[in-house]
Amino acid sequence: MYLATVIDLYSRKIVGWSMDETMKVSLVNDALKMALISRNPEKGLIWHTDRGSQYASYEHKDLLKRHGIIQSMSRKGNCHDNAVAESFFHTLKTELIHHEIYHTKEQAKRSIFEYIEVFYNRERSHSANNNLSPVEFEEKQKLLQKEIAA
């Protein structure tokens, strides 16, 4: 199974994700579409990815263009350019995947859904967020913005 994610760099929230049996353009496009529905970003959003062929495809570039998204790809052979995504996948494997045995694809999908939507986004603390979960961090930031505007 392959998992594609869209991570908000500010809060570390997984705002879009998709799973499939093959790594293809539709996998990453589905994750991005989920994020677009979730966030409805303004034009000029920067979308940073690795150099995988699915991200360089015409179909993917067309999706970005239609939504006014600027593509940024990591440098060849430099995993540090995509460190937040690399860190998420390391965490997912360390905290979940290496501790589970999945007997069916549906079982794996359900487990990863629960990890992302229930645990990772809502409960798991992040040092980049002052040890708040992504959802808690975003809620706190909204309150601070309201206080500043008042």
TrEMBL record:
Any Pfam family: rve
InterPro entries: Integrase_cat-core, RNaseH-like_sf, RNaseH_sf, Transpos_IS3, Transposase_IS3/IS150/IS904
Top-level taxon in the UniProt lineage: Bacteria
PANTHER family with a match to the protein in the record: TRANSPOSASE INSF FOR INSERTION SEQUENCE IS3B-RELATED (PTHR46889), TRANSPOSASE INSO FOR INSERTION SEQUENCE ELEMENT IS911B-RELATED (PTHR46889:SF4)
Protein name from the UniProt record: IS3 family transposase orfB
A molecular-function term among this protein's GO annotations: nucleic acid binding
Organism of derivation: Arcobacter suis CECT 7833
Residue ranges occupied by any Integrase catalytic domain in the UniProt entry: 1-142
GO BP field: DNA integration
